[in-house]
Automatic annotation (TrEMBL):
Pfam families: DctM. It is a multi-pass membrane protein. One of its GO terms (molecular function) is transmembrane transporter activity. It is found in: Cell inner membrane. The keyword Cell inner membrane applies. This is TRAP transporter large permease protein. The complex comprises the extracytoplasmic solute receptor protein and the two transmembrane proteins.
Length: 434
C-alpha cells in the first residue's frame, strides 16, 4: 500500500471510529510519515505542530472569538432586533426579515455562525412562535441566516484561508466577502416573505412598530462595530490582527458602559469560555500541521490534484465537482477542518486554471456556510433546535429548502466573479490572479 493511500485511510478510519478530527489528522499524518519517510522523522511532530500555530495572523482568531462572545452577552442582539423591527414594521414575514437583517449585522461583529445563531435565537424564537411561525421553520431560518457570518468580515474562516493559501491579502478577502454575504442573506428574504404570506404567519394588524429614532440610537453602538473594523482596515489604521484587538476593546466598552450588561464577573467567565473555544480551534490547526507537512512532503496533495485533473480538462466541470465535494464536506465537518484538509489539494488546481484565489476563497466560504445548517451535522441547526426545544430532524425539510435558495447566490458569484472582486478592487486591495 502506498504511503499516500495509507495516510488517507488512517485519517478516514479514525473519523469513522469517532476520533476527534484534530487527532484523526495527526494520526493520518504520522502514519504517512512512518510509511513513506522514516520512523526517525516522527521527531518533526513537535516542530510541525508548533509551526502550524506560531503565526502572527492567527492571534486574530481567539480575539474575534472573544469579540463574538462579548457582543452576544452584551445585549447587542436585542437592540438590533428592535431597530430592525422599527425599519421593517409589522407585516407578513416581517420577523423573518428581521432575523436575516440582524444575522447579517451580527456577522460583522463575531465572524462565527454558531455564536450568532445562539444570540439571535434567544431573542427571536419566542416572538416568532407567538406570531404563528412553526418552531422548525424559525430554527432553520435562524441557522441558515447566521451562516452568513462566515462571509461577513471579520470571518474566522477567511483568516484561516489567508494563512493556508500563500500570498492572499486578508483585507481583500474581508472586503470580497461582504457583497456575497449580503447576497446570501437576501436570497432568504423572498422565500421567507412568500411562505409567511402563503401560510398566514404573523398578522400585520397585531404587530407593533418600535419608534425608529429611539431604536436607532439604542442600536447605534452595535451598528458602528462593523464600520470600525472594515473602515480601520481600509484606512490602514490597523492590520487585521490589530483590528481584532480593537474589536475586543470596543465590545467591552459597549457591553460595560453603554448597554451595561457585563460585569467583571461576566468578563472573567467570557475570557474562560473564549479560551476553551480557542483551544479547540488551535489544537485542530496544530495537529493538522502534521497532516499538511506529511501530505506536502509525500506529494499526496499534488497526486490528488493530478487525479482530479485527469477527470476533466474543463475548468468549469472541475469547479462544479469541487463545489459538490466541499458541500458534502460541509455537511460533516466544521469550516476550520475543511480549509485545513481540502485547501492544500485545491491550490494546485487554482494555479493550473488561473482561478483568482480571492474569488475562489469566497466560493469555498459560501459553500461551507451552506454546510453549517445542512444535515446531518449542521452545527448552526444544532444550536437553534436546542434553544427551540425541538428535535433536529424536524427541521430537515426547511433546512434543505433554504440550502437551495443560498445555492442560487453561490451560483451567481460563480458565474459573475465581479460580485466578489468589485469591492476589494474599489478599496485598492490586491486581488490579482495567480
Amino acid at each position: 500500500m502506498s504511503p499516500d493511500l495509507l495516510m488517507l485511510l488512517v485519517f478516514g478510519a479514525a473519523m469513522l471510529l469517532g476520533v476527534p478530527v484534530a487527532f484523526a489528522l495527526g494520526l493520518g499524518g504520522a502514519a504517512g510519515i512512518v510509511a513513506g519517510l522514516s520512523p526517525d522523522m516522527l521527531a518533526t511532530l513537535g516542530t510541525n505542530t508548533y509551526n502550524s500555530i506560531a503565526k502572527y495572523p492567527l492571534i486574530a482568531i481567539p480575539l474575534f472569538i472573544l469579540t463574538g462572545l462579548i457582543f452576544e452577552r452584551a445585549g447587542v442582539a436585542a437592540s438590533l432586533v428592535r431597530f430592525a423591527q422599527a425599519l421593517i414594521g409589522p407585516r407578513h414575514g416581517g420577523l423573518g426579515l428581521v432575523v436575516v437583517l440582524v444575522c447579517l449585522i451580527m456577522g460583522g461583529m463575531s465572524g462565527s455562525g454558531p455564536a450568532d445563531a445562539a444570540a439571535v435565537a434567544m431573542v427571536m424564537l419566542p416572538s416568532m412562535t407567538r406570531a404563528g411561525y412553526p418552531k422548525p421553520f424559525s430554527a432553520a431560518l435562524i441557522a441558515s441566516a447566521s451562516s452568513t457570518a462566515i462571509l461577513i468580515p471579520p470571518s474566522i474562516a477567511l483568516i484561516l484561508y489567508s494563512i493556508v493559501v500563500p500570498g492572499v491579502d486578508l483585507r481583500a478577502l474581508f472586503a470580497a466577502g461582504l457583497v456575497p454575504g449580503v447576497l446570501a442573506g437576501m436570497s432568504l428574504l423572498l422565500p421567507v416573505w412568500w411562505l409567511a404570506r402563503r401560510n398566514g404567519w404573523e398578522d400585520p394588524s397585531q404587530g407593533e412598530r418600535p419608534p425608529l429614532k429611539e431604536s436607532f440610537i439604542r442600536a447605534l453602538p452595535a451598528l458602528f462595530a462593523p464600520v470600525l473594523i472594515l473602515g480601520g482596515l481600509r484606512s490602514g489604521l490597523f492590520t487585521p490582527t490589530e483590528a481584532a484587538v480593537v474589536a475586543v476593546t470596543y465590545g467591552l466598552l459597549v457591553g460595560v458602559f453603554v448597554y451595561r450588561q457585563l460585569s467583571l464577573k461576566d468578563i472573567w467567565g467570557l475570557l474562560g469560555e473564549a479560551g476553551m473555544v480557542s483551544g479547540v480551534v488551535m489544537i485542530i490547526i496544530s495537529l493538522a500541521g502534521i497532516f499538511a507537512w506529511a501530505g506536502t512532503t509525500l506529494g499526496t496533495f499534488q497526486h490528488l490534484a493530478e487525479a482530479m485533473l485527469s477527470l476533466s480538462d474543463q475548468g468549469w466541470v472541475l469547479m462544479i465537482l469541487i463545489m459538490v465535494l466541499v458541500l458534502l464536506a460541509g455537511m460533516l465537518l466544521d469550516a476550520i477542518s475543511i480549509y485545513l484538509i481540502i485547501t492544500p489539494i485545491l491550490v494546485p488546481l487554482m494555479q493550473h486554471f488561473g482561478w483568482n484565489p480571492i474569488w475562489f476563497g469566497i466560493l469555498l466560504a459560501m459553500n461551507i456556510a451552506i454546510g453549517q445548517f445542512t444535515p446531518p451535522v449542521a452545527i448552526n441547526l444544532m444550536v437553534t433546535t436546542q434553544i427551540a426545544g425541538i428535535r433536529l430532524e424536524k427541521t430537515f425539510g426547511w433546512a434543505l429548502f433554504f440550502m437551495l435558495t443560498m445555492l442560487s447566490a453561490l451560483v451567481l458569484v460563480m458565474v459573475f466573479p465581479g460580485l466578489a472582486l468589485w469591492l476589494p478592487e474599489r478599496m485598492g486591495f490586491v486581488v490579482g490572479d495567480w
